[in-house]
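Internal tracking record. Fields below are filled automatically when a chain is submitted to the structure queue. Please do not edit lines marked as system-generated. If the sequence contains nonstandard residues, flag them in the REMARKS field before resubmitting.
Queue: standard
Priority: normal
Entity type: single polypeptide chain
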Amino acid sequence: MTDQIDERAIDMAELAAEFWKLLRNYDRVVEAAPDNLKAGLIAQAKYGNRRLFTILDRYGMHIETFDGLPYSANLPVTAVNAEDFVDGDAVIEQTLEPAIIVGTTAVKTGRVFLRAEKV
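SYSTEM-GENERATED OUTPUT FOLLOWS
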């Protein structure tokens, strides 16, 4: 799979990114849940996360997130607020969608939100 990126790989990358986002939103549900339900919800989220990484690994794929890294045009991401940082250095505050990588090739570009780098 690492030598060949076809439509199925692209579809799998899209699905993986959507599942990753769903798991991140699920974390908010867990926080708001009653204490007596949290343990089961946390276990389910951990299981889903492990399955996601295991399945992607089978196909030579992995997820990349960029929180806290200096923003660079070389990263496989699109910054949703890049126009706010034309003249200054920026740090990635939050990964909104992860990049999905096969080998060293980005099958799916991530989306990030930037903040000013603290000096």
